[in-house]
Amino acid sequence: MTLVPLSDAGIATVAQVLGTGDAVVLPCPSPLPYVVAARSPQSVNGAKGRPRGQPCGRLVEPGDVAFSHLDLNEDARDFAEWAAAVELVSLLVPVTHAAPAWLRSGAPHRFAGLSAAWHPGLHPLVEQSRHLSISSANRTARPPAVTAQEAEKAFAGRLLVLDGDGVRDRTRDHGSAVMLQILRTGTASVVRNGVQNRGCADDREYLRRLRRRFRAHRSEVRADEASTTEAAEAPR
Q1: DSSP strand pairing (160-163 vs 24-27)
Q2: Global pTM?
Q3: Would you give the DSSP letter of residue 180?
Q4: What is the spatial distance between Cα 221 and Cα 233, in angstroms, rounded to a whole number?
Q5: DSSP letter (8 states) at residue 57
Q6: Interhelix angle for 203-233 vs 74-85, to 10°?
Q7: Within this chain, do residues 216 and 116 fall inside the same structural domain, yes or no?
Q8: Domain that holds residue 209
Q9: What digits encode the pLDDT tens for the residues 7-35?
Q10: What percent of the chain is helix, strand and coil (3-state, nearest 5)?
């Protein structure tokens, strides 16, 4: 196919292609790469030339109902949602038996791959699609595409590519996201290294940094909540 700009018209074209069941290439927020996306994992796998039954991640928006169906305790769920929305890590997380069919179908052994790395410029697609199957924009064993031109070349022009280069931070290093596996108790481990933990001595150092940032985030949220409560209770 061809490159289309990240604009209202470009997004409309992407939505039309997705509606036919075909795969497209979408930009993620920096520092993540481009991804192949479709309404079904079979279309993503077909575009990448790999077995059609291979599990794919799911791209959801922060706060999506998917997070309420994770088989995690409250603290672990809060950490998972924060890590996906703020740190842009990919998740490998257990889902409940009551999870929607689209979530359970992509969760072999009850563990689903989730990402909340929607680019802010794609909100119209979020409203239409809610969730998409995704995988990095590359052919198997090749580096992920970090520019629209790399994505177009990787798929030899066969896929529609939404060109988001102009709204990405080209001064940063880009690459695949770290993938965290989070268990019901909150235990987290790095199952795939990525751009976010480059420079860390090891996984333990990265997880310590991540936990510190999460605790700081929760402290800020609680301070804001306390301030709001005090203001509401103040005599008038």
Answers
A1: parallel
A2: 0.90
A3: E
A4: 18
A5: E
A6: 100
A7: no
A8: 201-236
A9: 999 999 999 999 999 999 999 999 999 99
A10: 40, 20, 40
